[in-house]
Write a structure and sequence with these properties.
Elements (H helix, E strand, L loop, with lengths): L1 E5 L6 H12 L4 E6 L7 H5 L7 H4 L3 H16 L17 E2 L5 E4 L12 H13 L6 E6 L5 H4 L8 E6 L3 H16 L3 E9 L4 H10 L6 E4 L2 H9 L7 H12 L4
Parallel strand pairs: 1-5, 1-6, 2-4, 2-5, 6-7, 7-8
Antiparallel strand pairs: 3-4
Helix pairs in contact: 1-10, 4-5
Length: about 250
């Protein structure tokens, strides 16, 4: 299954991606695809080495649009059988202690380098032509906001997991994203993150008033907060328990 993890900047989508990957790795072979062109800390919180970017394997960002979808897919596939992540050269992935495989699409790092459009196009192509075995799961940590929606990245996914923090902006983005994801015939899940007892009922009711069904909530976790502040391997207590319960509710465990 290919799941895109979305959310506005600061909502905690990278942390939830890592927690979900750890939970799912108990029963599945899990790949995490870093499709956020600006976030630099995903390898650290996952406790994996930063792999070479897939965009480099394909000749650099300037070559992405020139090749087009068909040629990009062919370049990443073998014998026309679709793209298999475990068939990419070893330097384009790394592994966490749990055996979670990390791949990176590409990063914007220099002044005047250009927009992230080629990266979104590459992610869309990869997901559309990706072939998975029954026990394999792919989590895509997307760029902040919903620009990927305009680039059609969701087309290649099976489901979208929206991470919303306790803000009106997060819920509004969830409402917009859900409408389009449902039109595409994809599964849409909403998870409320960083929830404290004081605001749990408020944000849940607000979401329901906006026509948003809440799959589950992840409590604010000091261990997660501290790990993200330090930029170190993600530690979690309550948040891990909540992520596990949510994935079971989604029938992914």
């Amino acid at each position: 299954m290919k799941i895109m993890v979305c959310g506005k900047g600061g909502s905690g989508k990278s942390s939830l991606t890592v927690l979900a990957a750890r939970v799912l790795s108990k029963a599945h072979k899990v790949y995490v695809i870093d499709s956020d062109e600006s976030n630099a800390l995903l390898p650290k919180i996952l406790d994996a080495e930063p792999p070479k970017a897939i965009v480099e394997y394909l000749g650099g960002r300037g070559a992405i649009f020139e090749k087009g979808e068909v040629n990009l897919a062919k370049a990443m596939a073998k014998a026309g059988k679709g793209i298999r992540l475990d068939e990419l050269p070893s330097e384009y992935s790394s592994s966490s202690p749990e055996g979670i495989r990390l791949l990176t699409i590409g990063k914007v790092r220099e002044f005047g380098e250009g927009c992230a459009c080629p990266f979104n196009f590459l992610t869309r192509t990869l997901l559309k032509h990706l072939k998975l075995e029954t026990n394999e799961m792919v989590l895509v940590d997307t760029d902040a906001g919903i620009e990927h929606l305009g680039r059609g990245v969701e087309e290649g996914s099976d489901a979208v997991l929206m991470v919303a923090d306790p803000t009106a902006e997060s819920l509004e983005l969830a409402r917009i994203l859900k409408a389009d994801v449902v039109k595409l015939g994809k599964t849409f899940w909403l998870v409320l993150n960083k929830v404290t007892p004081e605001i749990a009922d408020i944000i849940t009711l607000k979401a329901e008033d906006m026509g948003l069904d809440v799959l589950g909530t992840v409590r604010f976790d000091n261990a997660v907060f501290k790990s993200c502040l330090e930029g170190s391997t993600l530690e979690a207590e309550k948040a891990y328990e909540d992520a596990e319960a949510i994935l079971r509710r989604a029938n992914l465990m």
